[in-house]
Amino acid sequence: MPTSAPPPRPPSRTSRRVAIVLGSVLVALVLGEAGLRVALRLRGDPWDAEAAAERVRALATGMNARLPDPRGAAPAAGTEPGTHVLHPYYGVDREGDVAELEAKARRFRAGEYDDAYVVVTLGGSVCALTVNEQHERIRAAIAADPRLANRRVELVNQGRGAFKAPQQATLLEYLFALGWRPDAVVEIDGFNEVAIPNGNWKSNVHPVQPMWGTWGLLAADRSDRSRELVLASECLLLAREGSQTAERLLASGELSSAILGRVGVKRMVRIQSRWSAAQGEYARFLAEQTSSRAARGPVFEATEDEAWPQFVDTWFENSRSLAASCAARGITYVHVLQPTLHDEGSKPLTEAERASSDGPKPWMKGAKRGYPMLREAGKRLAAEGVGFVDLSLLFRDLTEPTYYDVCHFRGRGQELFADAIVEALRARLPAEIPAKRAWTRAR
Q: Which of 38, 98, 214, 259 lies 20 to 30 Å (CA to CA) from residue 220?
């Protein structure tokens, strides 16, 4: 007779305990996830996986700006469009952007824009991001104005990360020299004009100079090569760590969990903070080199109370120069003061925004002390007839999160800002706009 199979053995006591522990951990995680989501929603700051992914991408992108070759070699022409190069008129640019300026100038000179209403935007990274990401929203809203019914609208973004007054004015003069003929110019600025000068000054760099963290890395003459290699390598290694961490977070699905996602974003913030400190140390090293004196600009001797009016005066005069250059050519000019996170009372900050608000101390102080001064100076601009519009308090009643770092914002805040820029421009448009460009080329 065939033997029957032995009855299955009951699970051992150890196996049952392991199963109970694992089940308990899983239940705890599920309850913890649900509890955290409820708590965040009650605070008015619900977990948003898409917004977390945007923030992770932004942090990684910000850490991967190119550094110059530590050996001091000049970038080869035509190598990479993203390579930063020195520019004789406005400090620093990307090689591809310099080439694009001439390409568009050829189109102006050839008359390809004669039937278009061309709006050029100037400013720093907030300008660059807002106009890039809300491009069609802004362009379509301008085109909807009945005065432009017979003109196609071209929106040309010339915002550049780390740009500050007076770089925008010198850039515009360079564009005019190339042959650009816009119909309207919109200047979007504020944060860089008080944060960067304060950072420069604290690094023994003249506050009117371009941001030392970009300009100095290219313009300063370096002598201590071994020390520089160490500092530059630290920046690059942290940037790589940030990229690898971001790739893992985005690919793993961790950001879909409020618990794991918050941990991941905090990890990215810590890496970015270390990277920022390393960049600062590298910039200070270059500023301390005796041979970099020319790049640092003239010695700026001032007390705290003397320095801040200089920061604001540079911003003020930049706008006056832009307004005068545009007026001489019949160009509509609008100057917008952007919102910023550390301008106290300008927005009810969420927990996520407070967690992302850390940045270089001179920059944070720049916003806190400088923005009230910019608002007052803006009133003087408006009194002179300059098309100044103060949008610094635009987010005063916005309770949902929009800032993802010390000064940049996305989401609903960015949409509100884009709409307010259009409203400011439309308020300055002339009563009648001809159907074709009315300028003549010099012969």
A: 98
Q: Is residue 333 part of a domain?
A: yes
Residue 235 lies in a domain: no
Q: Do you know the residue count of the chain?
A: 443
Q: How far apart, in whole angstroms, are the C-alpha atoms of residue 357 and residue 213? A: 20
Tell me if 298 is assigned to some domain.
yes
Distances (CA, A) of 23 to 11, 86, 106, 258: 16, 61, 69, 20
Cα 105 to Cα 89, 175, 438, distances in angstroms = 17, 8, 17
Which segments of the chain have a pLDDT < 70?
A: 1-13, 15, 18-19, 21-29, 33, 44-45, 62, 64-82, 222-225, 290-291, 438-443
SS3 280: helix
User: Domain total for the chain?
Assistant: 1
Q: Are 198 and 347 in contact (CB under 8 A)?
A: no
The answer to whether 377 and 323 are in contact (CB under 8 A) is no
Q: Assess if residue 244 is contained within a domain.
A: no
d(CA 75, CA 80): 9
Q: Are 173 and 324 in contact (CB under 8 A)?
A: no
Q: Render pLDDT for 373-401 as a digit per residue (tens, 0 to 9).
A: 999 999 999 999 999 999 999 999 999 99
Instruction: Check: CB of residue 412 under 8 Å from CB of residue 394.
Output: no
- Which residues lie below 8 Å from residue 179, measured CB to CB, with a gap of 6+? 105, 106, 108, 109, 441
Measured CA to CA in angstroms, residue 17 lies from 10, 11, 12, 13 at distances of 13, 10, 9, 6
Report the pLDDT value the prediction gives residue 48, as an integer from 0 to 100. 84
- What three-state secondary structure class fits 24? helix
The residues, ordered by sequence, that sit 6+ positions from 256 with a Cβ below 8 Å of its Cβ are: 49
H or E, element range at 421: helix 412-428
Q: Identify the domain containing residue 372 by its residue range.
A: 108-221+289-428
Cite the beta strand spans of 338-398 per DSSP E.
388-390
- Rounded to whole angstroms, the Cα distance separating 266 from 74 reads 37
366: domain CATH number?
3.40.50.1110
Q: According to the model, what pLDDT value does residue 398 have?
A: 97
Is 126 within 8 Å of 188 (Cβ atoms)? yes
